[in-house]
Design goal:
The structure is a homodimer of 277-residue chains. With 277 residues, chain A is α/β, with parallel strands linked by helices. The first copy, chain A, has a single domain (3-273), classed as Alpha-Beta Barrel (TIM Barrel), CATH 3.20.20. Helices cover 42% and strands 15% of the residues of chain A. The first copy, chain A, has eleven helices and eight strands. In chain A, strands 1-2-3-4-5-6-7-8 form an eight-stranded parallel beta barrel, surrounded by six helices. The longest helix of chain A has 22 residues, at 252-273. Chains A and B meet through helix 3, helix 4, strand 3, helix 5 and helix 6 of A and helix 3, helix 4, strand 3, helix 5 and helix 6 of B.
Chain lengths: 277, 277
């Protein structure tokens, strides 16, 4: 999917919601454990219930890997299901990968060729040659970690770099602009760090931002939109736990749909007030 | 495995060799493709041939993920095989993971509980709460990326941090000393960056270093040992392509054994001249 197609979907659905599929076997409704593949069944019902309000799904690989081969199988079925039934929805593998060049190439093959995801999250610590192999795939995206939503993101990301006016995450933004463009690079910026969005938009006005941390982690959608929105929306705001674990009864999917709809309605107002729809 | 057990194994085998199991389906001997699980069969033969010269194996997850569920299955079988047949050998999942706390916990479960690896490589960009969940497992290890072997490691790792005498990787070393100790933290330092080992040893004199980049990437074992060795050896030097792809005929495992033996002999001399054996 390319930049314009993503923006078109946002306008059509009046939403820039990304639902995080962090399916944890200990947190899903217990009656699903009778299913042959409880994790896939959980995801399938969440997806069917929320797809109309959602422009992207973001399975985090950690939750699948914790179940070993079975988990990896659930992940594959989940991504295949989205691509088959909801082909216009953007799929982000939240994998935070990154390695030396020939190894990053294998990760790119895993997530773009094998799984056919649209995007993968990538950690910047190892520099350009750990990221470039992902950018060689047409209409596929790197979502580079910039300023993450967790508390200890300040440990390194907010350290100032000598002889520049930039801290580390700003240096990552500036340097990575040489590697790709708005058609193949997005950035992770935590909703809990909304106060930085103004300066981030000065460096990368056009790129999409993947914004986790609304909901369970305490970030505000209004704050994120105020400083982060651009002419093509430029935002994918993620909610995981707040939607998928809204309820653990047989009606969990209906409750998830209600939570996703709430976010869609708030996003619709934001898109309207910014004259994007 | 704990620090002393690892050192004891090094003395017993007169080796600090780690063999990287980067099994690429396009590079393994083609006659293995007739096997039910060519990747596992390849690994098994490499392991059986090299185990006597080797103190650690390091499968890089990228090569397995590129094959999807089948690859993950080969990885599981490979790790189980090492743990069953060569239980005193240290197993490092080279996964370069790292995420917010509750997610890193899932990765730790994946590699320590499910796969029963001894160690996992972790990227530091997200700070302490992305690393600490891995350190809660007794006798398990984080191998934190510090100064990597790839060319673009300088993009960020060598940036100087304002108002300190440290660059980013030194800041990572100093900060992470507060999170763990020599019993549960190792660091990745590329052999191609041996000139930094002197200053690295000033910051972390006791920790083990996992050193990739000898061989195909051009690093020198002698240089690494000269500046990196400590009283407990403190080094695991990795070779992947130089050993596992030394030959692609039916004798590939014998050739791998010869290459591993060459490194063992060179390491034996180094251990002797440092009076460690």
């Amino acid at each position: 999917m390319n930049y314009n197609q993503l923006f078109e979907q946002i306008k059509r659905k009046q939403s820039f919601l990304c639902v995080g599929l962090d399916a944890d076997i200990t947190k899903i409704p217990q009656f699903l454990l009778d299913e042959e593949d409880p994790i896939f069944e959980f995801n399938k019902r969440i997806i069917d219930a929320t797809a109309q309000y959602t422009v992207a799904y973001k399975p985090n690989t950690a939750f699948y890997e914790a179940q070993g081969v079975a988990g990896w199988h659930s992940l594959e079925k989940t991504i295949n299901y989205i691509n088959l039934i909801y082909e216009d929805i953007f799929v982000i593998a939240d994998a935070k990968r990154g390695d030396i060049g020939n190894t990053s190439k294998m990760y790119a093959q895993a997530f773009f060729d094998h799984f056919d995801c649209d995007a993968v999250t990538v950690a910047p610590y190892m520099g350009s040659d750990s990221v470039l192999p992902f950018l060689e795939f047409k209409n596929k995206w790197v979502v580079l970690l910039a300023l993450t939503s967790n508390q200890s993101s300040h440990d390194f990301q907010l350290q100032n770099i000598e002889n520049t006016d930039n801290n580390l995450f700003e240096t990552v933004l500036k340097k990575s602009k040489e590697w790709g463009d708005k058609e193949n690079m997005m950035y992770v910026v935590g909703a809990t760090k909304a106060e930085y969005l103004k300066q981030i938009r000065k460096i990368i006005p056009d790129n999409f931002l993947l914004v986790p941390g609304v909901g369970a982690q305490g970030g505000s959608l209004q704050e994120v939109a105020k400083y982060g929105i651009n002419e093509s929306c430029g935002l994918l705001v993620n909610s995981s736990r707040g939607i998928i674990y809204a309820n653990t009864t047989a009606d969990f999917d209906k409750e998830a749909a209600l939570k996703a709809r709430e976010m869609h309605l708030e996003m619709k107002e934001i898109l309207k007030s910014n004259k994007l729809i």
